[in-house]
Amino acid sequence: MKVTQETHGAATLFIVEGQVDMHTSPALRQHLREALSNSASPLVVDLTSVAFIDSSGLATLIEALQAVGKYGGKLRLCGLSPEVQKLFELAQLTTIFDLRETRDEAMAD
Amino acid sequence: MSTPVRLSLTSHPKYLPLVRAVVQEGCGLAGFDEELTHRILLAVTEAVTNVIRHVYGGDKDKQIEMEVEAEPHVLKLALIDYGTFVDPKQIASRPLEEVRPGGLGVHLIKTTMDHVDYRRNAHGGTTLSLVKNAPAHEESS
Fold this sequence. Notes:
The complex is a heterodimer.
Chain A: E1 2-8, E2 11-20, H1 25-37, E3 43-53, H2 55-70, E4 75-78, H3 82-90, E5 98-100, H4 103-107
Parallel strand pairs in A: 2-3, 3-4, 4-5
Antiparallel strand pairs in A: 1-2
Helix pairs in contact in A: 1-2
Chain B: E1 5-10, H1 16-30, H2 34-55, E2 63-71, E3 74-81, H3 105-112, E4 115-120, E5 126-133
Helix pairs in contact in B: 1-2, 2-3
């Protein structure tokens, strides 16, 4: 898994590539924590190039969502593949997260 | 692959992609489509992750074995650990309406696989048996 972090104005963008599981999710968590510690908002996580994500990855994103909520920030996810979208549906998270189709949509506002 | 393929590995999460690669091959031999294959890869990942995290407490050098047996329309898996037997009654998923990290793995396993069975094995650990039938062949379970 690879995480590329970019800053665009107030927005912090995380481009995630590869497979997110118990082995790789700690690295994603570390990237997110650094932005969260700075109360950055919005945080945008682009999952377009994520071929696989498991409950460890979901837990990482839920933690980030809860953390960003504590300081009134926003977390948006974009580019979910049909398989990743299905996982969010199975976990009943589609209404909990702010899901956008494209990175441009997620970066807007 | 009517003869089971046996994979022996240590409990390091770096081997999760290897587990998925083997299971993916089995899904292909069983004739499963891409969507079902992805669901099974997720379920097996959750099962192995549970062993690493809950049976071995995150230790990375414990033993895990997995057997994969594929026949047309059927995939059978066995996940064998050498830890302490886990009482199935204590393996519960959290209510989905409770949005918090963790507790999803068992839910994902049970909603994907047709047969989920936890049994104490000869080593004192747990053997988790998983079976998935192709949707049009569910009567063979």
